[in-house]
Amino acid sequence: MADIVMPLRAGTQTKVESEKLTPEAIIAIAVLIASTFTVILNEMMMAVALPRVMIDLNINASTVQWLTTGYMLTMAVVIPATGFLTERFRMRTVYTIALSLFTLGTLIAVVAPGFSVLLIGRIVQAVGTAIATPLAFTAVAALVPRSRQGRMMALLTVATSTAPAFGPAMAGAILSVAGWRWLFIAILPIALICLVVGNRMIRVPSTPRHAKLDVVSVLLSAVGFSGVVYGLASFGEGSGGHSIVSPWLALGVGLVFVALFAARQFHLQKSDRALLDLRPFANRTFATTSLLALAFMTAAAGMMTLMPVMLQTSYGLTPLQTGLFMLPGGLTITFISMVVGRYYDRVGARPLMIIGAVIDAAGLYFLSTLAPGTPIPVLLATYIFIIVGQAFLWTPTYAASLGALNKHLLPHGSAIMSTIQQLTGAAGIAIAFSIMTSASAKYVAGGEALAPSMAHGAQYYYLVGCFVAIAALVIAFAMPKTTAGSGVPVGVH
User: Fold this and answer.
1) How far apart are CA 382 and CA 171, in angstroms?
2) Which among 23, 25, 82, 87 is least surrounded, fewest beta carbons within 10 Å?
3) Are 303 and 326 in contact (CB under 8 A)?
4) Residues 454/440, Cβ–Cβ less than 8 Å
């Protein structure tokens, strides 16, 4: 069934009426939010299950880590091509492909007899996730009037930012009563429902463009982005020595190929044939929010990844207790994001970004002063305070960046933001664990036990994260003003 675009009757609708969402659009947005939450939840749940998988499948740490590293690498390869896919095919078709692949990968993981098949299932899941996540932002931005994009983007960013908090808690609860396969069994029916309902209800006005896929761009993108992510992720593994390829070599080769990829896109976009069109960066609002995202997402990824490790290694919490510790953060970002979304529609992005960066920087600084043995309630209160700051940053970042683009560049802008999120995730983890490992080694050399030395090492990273958040604050002040409710940039001189 083809997508249906209903023309507006000029002069018969008031502005308020024309900005109302139809029931079909509301259902489509709800499905997009649910599917985005599901695919990201699946990504985060696996980390908690890795020790159990090692025992059940009789594999070592260097092997099992490919269930997460392979997932990241696959997403890094696929995401840059999502802008092309969304332009080439109708959004409903792309969504159906994405959720079908994700569902298939989940089913493969459920029945996997060994590690190899399980890894295949994870890779197939990752392809679906890589397509579904940026597609959701593109579709919502196309469906929702700009005057209401803050609230709708808030709902979508809730899905992307709360899943990392709910994932460990849900995984810990399931693993306390069942095996790791039940993580995938729990996801499977939700994925099927999203696939069926989304295939019927997603009707996003679009005109597919018959463009040829540039194979050279695909190859450059695959080598470049996977090399960068692999190199950064390998640094994040610390000194375990499990890297097949030197992190420096992988990162260096990756950066060279990313540069070649960018150069080719600049050439191809002159004839409108780019795999990932980079013209969104010519828009000042998009360029500024991208730089802001690069800063605050790096700090956020490092803190979010390091915190559960510290809770288990330095504070003695179990995986389930750690998951429960992270859970209030998910609830907090859900509530605050909804409030931020409403204010975004009134005041624009810059004031909210400034508030968020200030809170983020202050919280990370305070966290860097907390010595090993700090009471858990104090850690939790500080963690939630930082989460509040992140909530003030997530929604304005996505709403302002995508709201500033025309429809032709919207899929590419969404793909760029998703690529930034993937790269900053790997970079944040690498920076966090590298700083923590090197700093804690000095304490161990001085005779301190490993557990408190790791907590001391984490303090150094939190201080670095504070400076990164301050950099985000400086960028926020450079953000162009937006008229309340419009999302249209207003020149600032």
Assistant:
1) 24
2) 23
3) no
4) yes
Q: Which helix (H) or strand (E) holds 219?
A: helix 215-236
* Alpha helix segments (H runs only) across 369-449: 376-403, 410-445
Crossing angle between the packed helical segments 376-403 and 149-175, to the nearest 10 degrees: 140
Classify residue 8 as exposed, middle or buried by CB count within 10 Å of its CB (0-12, 13-18, 19+).
exposed
The third-level CATH classification (topology) of the domain covering 19-490 is Growth Hormone; Chain: A; (1.20.1250)
Rg (CA), the chain: 22
Confidence tier at 105 by pLDDT (50, 70, 90): very high
pTM over 0.85? The answer is: no
* Residue 360 one-letter amino acid: D
Place of tokens 């930082």: 386
Residue with tokens 């044939």: 273
User: Which residues, including other chains, have CB under 8 Å from residue 275's CB and lie 6 or more apart?
Assistant: 80, 81, 83, 84, 213, 214, 217, 218, 221, 265, 268
Chain position carrying tokens 């001391």: 456
Q: How confident is the model at residue 96 (pLDDT cuts 50, 70, 90)?
A: very high
Which one-letter DSSP state was computed for residue 89? S
In the structure, what pLDDT confidence band is assigned to residue 467 with cuts at 50, 70 and 90?
Answer: very high
Q: Per-residue pLDDT tens for 399-412?
A: 888 888 887 788 88
**Which pair of tokens denotes residue 14?**
């008031």
Cβ neighbour number for residue 7 with a 10 Å cutoff: 5
Q: What share of the chain is helix, strand, coil (3-state, %, to 5)?
A: 80, 0, 20
Tokens of 254: 């990756």
Task: Give the pLDDT confidence of 425-446 residue by residue, as tens digits.
Answer: 778 877 888 888 888 888 888 8
pLDDT band at 186 (very low <50, low <70, confident <90, very high): very high
In DSSP notation, 426-482 reads HHHHHHHHHHHHHHHHHHHHTT--HHHHHHHHHHHHHHHHHHHHHHHHHHHHTSPEE
Stretch 154-167: mean pLDDT: 73
3-state secondary structure of 490: strand
pLDDT of 415 over the 70 cut: yes
Instruction: State the sign of the Cα–Cα–Cα–Cα dihedral 265, 269, 274, 277.
Output: positive
List the one residue out of 433, 423, 442 whose CA is nearest residue 465: 433
Q: Is residue 10 pLDDT above 80, yes or no?
A: no
SS (H, E, C) 73-107: HHHHHHHHHHHHHHHHCCHHHHHHHHHHHHHHHHH
Distance CA 285, CA 209 (A): 26
Q: Pseudo-torsion of CA 251, 257, 260, 266, nearest 10°?
A: -90
Q: How many whole angstroms separate alpha carbon 54 and alpha carbon 34?
A: 30
> How far apart (Å, rounded) are the C-alpha atoms in residues 23 and 31?
12
Domain boundaries, the chain: 19-490
- Name the range with the highest mean pLDDT among 163-167, 200-204, 388-392: 388-392
